[in-house]
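User: My collaborator sent over this chain with a note saying "see what the structure looks like." That's all I know about it. Can you take a look?
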Amino acid sequence: MWACRRVWLYAKADIGSRELLHLEKSLEDSGLEVAVHPSYPSSGRFPRIPAGEAAKWADLIITVGGDGTLLKAYHEAGGALPFLGVNCGSIGYLMEVPLSRFKDALELILAGDYRIEERMVGLISAERWRSEFVNEVVVTSPHHSKLIRLSVRVNGFTLLQGRLDGLIVATPTGSTAYALSAGGPIVDTDLHAFSIVPLAPFTALAKPLVVSSSKRVEVAVGDACRVTVDGLHSHQLEACTASFAEAPSTLKLVKLPIGEDPWIKLVRRLTDAPA
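Assistant: Without extra context I'll predict from the sequence alone. Here is the result:
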């Protein structure tokens, strides 16, 4: 059984003082040893530890905000530790509990009433650059008004090629994010696969694909391109072939009996309904 004694807190910058007080009081009452990210918006009640140290020191990463907050924490700390998402946003598809149930969540974790769900993470490699992605990689032209020409090969066979505004390669977790908005399919998060979604293709025959992560997936770009990872950072590449594979690490999410059913979250995501 995984034992939680030390937690590292990663919160978005605009959390209100009342919410921060609720967080900090709940953590102090729990008896857990707590440290925070250097950017944590607080008066200094807890010590500040950078991500590299926190990944070795902590047992659990608690992210407070929305899905973007959890993605930022993952890219800084990596996938070695489990994450508990505390929702202060709208839908918060990756966030397990609302802030109002944070104290209840801590009690359940300390009582051992939880499970760890592991989700596939993607890995893009191109030239001498590589990056993990939790949600998606978006390939576009460096020039906003210009189409990009590319081809998608799976195990050496070309399945999609032509001119388009861009291309999304998403994990199952990311299939309900940008890829869904662009017309891609919803992929069960238990699967190990990529959804490949063309953005405004010049030919109407270019359709979304779902490909097993065990296959060799390559995207060949004939011109310079911009690659955006999880909506957080971009990298410009010259004409090249980018390879996609399943990363060795996983996204580990703490799941609790008070967490909102993921299918209810999905319905709200599909209908753009508020929390």
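A starting point for your reply to your collaborator: The mean pLDDT is 93.
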